[in-house]
Structure formats: C-alpha cells, structure tokens
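[Solved] Which block belongs to which protein?

Original post:
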Amino acid sequence: MPKTTSSVANSPNANRPLDSLYARIYARVRRIPPGRVSTYGHIARLVGGCSARQVGYAMAALPEGSRVPWQRVINAKGEISRRRHGNGTDNQRAQLLAEGIHFDFKGRIDLRRYGWLSH
C-alpha cells in the first residue's frame, strides 16, 4: 500500500471518495451570497474532515464556466490567493468588485464587513 500524506486519508471521511469531499465543499460555497466572501479555512470547518488547502484544491479543480461562486472564497488575510497560471487573480478581483465588494489599499477585503459566517 502506498504511503500517503494526504489529510483526506487521515480524516474521519477517509472512506469517502475525493469527489464526495469536493461535492460537499461546493455545496457550502454555493451558499455564500453575492456581496459576501468566506475563507478557505471557514469553508473547511463548515464541511469538516478537510483542510483549507483542500478547499483551495477543490476551487482550482472547478471546470471553466462552473456555477460554483469560487470567486467568493479568499484567504484568511482577506486577500485573493495568487495563482500560478492564467489571469484567475484578476478575474476574481473583477468579479468581486462587480458584486460590490471593495478592497483596501493593500488589496485586502474587510472580513468584518463582507465576511459570510454561516453555520
């Protein structure tokens, strides 16, 4: 059996396939209303059995044109996480601005004002 470092393999949900985890992540992200944001860590806590990093992987795995509002998930600093490829960062910023979410001079979103803290 191959050695794994995945926290999914060590989670209480280890017997569930990865797509089941992603489906649960996407279901939570779909609940974030327009004009609000949530963090990778907050979504991970709501879903349970995963990490903020896994939420990031799930957002990155979305196909082009997905209806999951991936743009509403940001990092704990209130920033858009940088992407290695493409113009996803600029696209995410533009979509959030279109929803009425504002950035400060450091490029951060005020989580107290725009944060979605659903249970």
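(Second protein starts here: sequence line, then its structure tokens.)
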Amino acid sequence: MRVESSEKLENIFDAHAHYDDGWFDEDREEVLLNLPQKGVCGVVNNAVDLKSAARAIGFAEKYPYFYAAVGFHPENLEDMPSDYLDRVAELTKHPKVVAIGETGLDYHWDIPRDLQKRVFEEQLQLSLDLDMPIVVHDREAHGDVFDLLRKYKPKALVHCFSGSVELMREAVRLGSFISLGGVVTFKNARHSLEVAAEIPLDRLLLETDAPYMAPVPFRGKRCDSSMIVYAAEKIAALRGIGVQELLDATCANAKRFYNIK
C-alpha cells in the first residue's frame, strides 16, 4: 500500500535522524525548509561526536521544529578527547538539546569492546546525573546492551530496534521506548513486523535514521523525514488503526520521551 498524494498527513515526528551527514550537503537547507510542509512536526538530530553535536545544535537554533541529541557513537571513539564527558554535559545546557546520544554498542565492526562499554556506561551515568533521556544504538550487541540497561535503568530509546518480540518485552519492562523505521517495509523484516504489531502503542516512536534506511520503494536512496509515512502505513495496517492515528500517537510519545512541551 502506498500513501496517496492527496492524503494530507501531519504530526510526523522523526525521533532519530542525521541531517549533518554529507549526503545532505548539496540541498540541506531546501530539504529542511520543506519538511514542515510535508507534515513533519519534529526531528531529533542525533550526534555521533562533538563536531556533529555542534552542527545538530546549529540546526536546532535555525529550524523551530528541530532538536538535538549530543553524545558519542561507538564508531566515533578513535579521536575522542579525554574530557569528552564534560564537554557533552556542557552541550546539554542548550535549551534545544533533549537527550544524550547517540551512544551504545556496535559489535558489527572491529572496535575494542571494552572501550565501547566504558564509554556507553559513562554516558548512561551522565544521563542519570542530568536526568535526561538517552538514545541507544544496539547492533549485534543485544546481550551487553540490555545488561547495561538493566544495571542503570535509564530513560532510554533503543533506536532502529532490531531485536525479537521477547527483547522488546524486556525493553518495555525496563521502562524503555523503541523506535522503528524503514526496515518494517523490507522483505526480510519478520522480527520488526512482529515487534511493530505487539509493542504497547505508548512505547513506540517512529524514525528514519536519515539519510540511511530509506523505506521501500526508495531503498538504497537518500532518506528524509517525510518518508516515515511508508513505515507508518505498514505499522498502522498491522495494528488495524489509521495512519494518522498512529502518527498522532507516536508524535505524542516522542514529545513525552524527549520532554518537549
């Protein structure tokens, strides 16, 4: 099923994106100016290091519907300064910084796991110290990620959730939220579809991970926040509700998770 062009959808909240990525360098301003006209009411741009955090905050200052999350991604630890935690904490004082992140564990790449876990734990503790939500990256690391979520019990969003229904239930039990995106439109998306059908609606957020993870029929192309409607269609059909009802609910959930008034 495709969203008809005549159907005006609103309250599209993209819980996780990366508009600082080079894929947007040629037309970033045009894209970001046009998103509200396509029904997008909010975007949280997630940093992966200090440089991207500064850019995310710059976007948030320029575009009213934009917000920033600041932190260190597990793939960006090589040149991390020794005082990174203090510098991340300082950035959180900005009124449009709404979370710590993106942080977490990524065992797909050959990155020292002890270093990843140390940095993830430090940012988990920071989120508790500052009473801020945290955005968690979990790639092929479910066991260690969830061990640490059990240990710290943060207000967490496990973004681009790739686990089973059983792991989703554990996330919900811990008080976490999950976000789903274009993967639910892929042919091999059995786990994501099962999770989308069963997760309590008040714990579900929608995301793009833009410019990555574009939904079918755009797979392999650049993604932007307006494409959430394709994932929303799929999930709404699974749950037997309207697309706009799903968008309204997930927008409210995103604002609640990120403490956006």
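Accepted answer:
You had them paired correctly. Confirming on the second one: The first strand starts at residue 12 and ends at 17.
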